[in-house]
Amino acid sequence: MAAITLQDIYAARSRIAGLARRTPLVPSPSLAGRLGGEVRLKLETLQDIGAFKIRGAANRILDLSPAERGRGVVTVSTGNHGRAVASAARAAGVRAVVCLSRLVPAFKVAAIEGLGAEVRVVGDSQDEAEVEAVRLVDAEDMVYVNPYDDRHVIAGQGTIGLELLEDYPALETAIVPLSGGGLIGGIALALKAAAPRVRVIGVSMERGAAMIESLRAGRPIQVPELPTLADSLGGGIGLDNRHTFALVRDLVDATVQVSEAEIAEAMRHAYREERLIVEGGGAVGIAAVLAGRIAGVGRTGIVLSGRNLDMDLFTRIVTGDPSALPA
Ligand SMILES: *Cc1c(COP(=O)(O)O)cnc(C)c1O
After folding, report:
1. How many angstroms from the chain centroid is the CA of residue 31?
2. pLDDT above 80: residue 1
3. C-alpha 130 to ligand 1 mean position (Å)
4. Model pTM?
5. Is CATH 1.10.760.10 the right assignment for the domain spanning 54-144?
6. 96-121, pLDDT tens digit by residue?
7. How far apart are CA 38 and CA 58, in angstroms?
8. What is the pLDDT of residues 7-34, one digit of tens each?
9. What is the whole-number distance in angstroms between the Cα of residue 35 and the centre of ligand 1?
10. CATH fold of 6-51+153-324, please?
11. CA of 80 to the centre of ligand 1 (A)
């Protein structure tokens, strides 16, 4: 299996330019004060679908062969990848089916349907929803678009790494949300190839951090999926993981976990100090900084990966309502 290269990431960049935005990188004086260095925030929250995942999905779908386009695409998603696949498939004129577990919030289901995809809600976990997606691949000969463990998806997410370095050549540390590892894997590939000095730190929630548990075990393992404010970081990494486990193991310098209260505090901080709406999974980098889990990292870029969450829940979180935290 050929390695994913910087070339693949540049190719992704030209392929997705019409569907994914080049997002701003903005200074954060409030977090710089906490970290004792310069901090800039990469606002993937400003993609049209509200999250970075359009980059990988667009790279995959725009590079389908004519025959694959005719078969249509199917995927499984905690929400944001589903939105991205729906949006890119619609732009490319390709049929899309998105399989979701019952843990995914209803507003996310509605958003995917609104983008023109067919939605199937199946099972109580990401892994059960995946079984339905695999069935559709067999039964209806559809093309599966893996949310993270796919070369095109990883290369697409890696375009964030190119932008980070171009907009911040002095970057010393990148702090990136971590779930399946497509986001951090692509970013780490780009950064380590172009500027090996940059440290890459992955952040997950304490509950159900499949990649971090797998790194500890030395191989992909399954972990129970629990309700979390960082719902977009839920799900496993696949026991037959092909790309991201090795990428994260080999290229990511450190990993950090944050509690539900710390995620809520980060969302509050982003809103009150930075005037930003960030979903739980997108705010874990800020959470790690505020909780003091990251130190001595120099000029730092933090990826804010998405902003898709229920606004009633958001309001309860930013007003400090303790009932907003999952039990
Ligand atoms: C999917 C997602 C992530 C994690 O990306 P992986 O490639 O699975 O590691 C982080 N933040 C948001 C908002 C996401 O939707």
Report:
1. 22
2. no
3. 17
4. 0.96
5. no
6. 999 988 877 788 889 999 999 999 99
7. 32
8. 999 999 999 999 999 999 999 999 999 9
9. 24
10. Rossmann fold (3.40.50)
11. 8
